[in-house]
Amino acid sequence: LYTQLVREKPAHIQALMEYIWALFQRGPAWSKLIADSLATLKQLEPFAVGSLRTEVARTLSFHYLYDELGGGFREAINAANRYNASSDLVPDAGVEINLACALGQAYIAETNPESRTSIRDQALAAVRKALEINPLSIARLVVLLEGQDPMDDDLVVFQRDNEFRALLKLPLVKNDGSP
Question: What is the DSSP letter of 64?
C-alpha cells in the first residue's frame, strides 16, 4: 500500500527522509527506528527520480555510516554504487564523500592486506571524484581526514597517507610521522 502511495505522490519519499533526519538529530545517531525507516527508504529508492534520487542516495549512504551494529558501511557503499551506476543521474559530491567514509570503515574492518589496498584505492578515487564534482568539498574532506569532528572521523585511517594529503592540499608527512 505504501509503495503504491509513493508512486502516486513522490513527496512521501521526501517526508520519510525528513523524518529520518529528525530522528538522527534528536539522537541517538542510530536506532531501530532509523534502521527500519532506512529499510523502507531503500525499498522506495526505485521510485525516486532526478534530484529526489540524489537525495535518497545521500540519505542512505550517510545514515548507514552510523550503524552501531556494524556492517552499515556495506549498505552505504551499496547505496552509493547503485547511484553511481545510473548513467542518467548527475554525479554528486555528497554521495562520493559518503562513499569515501564508508570505504574508510571498510578498510578498518578488513584484515586481508590485498583487499585493504583495493579499498584504500577506491576511497582515494571517491575523494578525487568528490573534489572534481565540487572543489569546495575539500573543506569537509579535510575535517574527515584530520579527525576534527569526533562524530565523523571515517577518513582518519588515511590521515598519514600522502596521496590523500596531497589531494586535500595538506602538508605531507615523512615516514617517521613528522611534517
Answer: G
Interatomic CA distance for residues 144 and 169, integer angstroms: 14
Would you tell me the crossing angle of helices 113-133 and 93-109 to the nearest 10 degrees? 170
Digit-by-digit pLDDT tens for the chain (179 residues) are 555 655 566 678 998 999 999 999 999 999 999 999 999 899 989 888 889 999 999 999 999 999 988 889 999 999 999 999 998 899 999 999 999 999 999 999 999 999 999 999 999 999 999 999 999 999 999 999 999 998 899 999 999 999 999 999 999 998 755 55
* Stated pTM of the model: 0.92
C-alpha cell at 104: 574508510
* Contact call for residues 144 and 97 (beta carbons, < 8 A): yes
Is residue 40 packed enough to be buried (19+ CB in 10 Å), middle (13-18) or exposed (0-12)?
middle
Q: Are the beta carbons of 65 and 98 closer than 8 angstroms?
A: yes
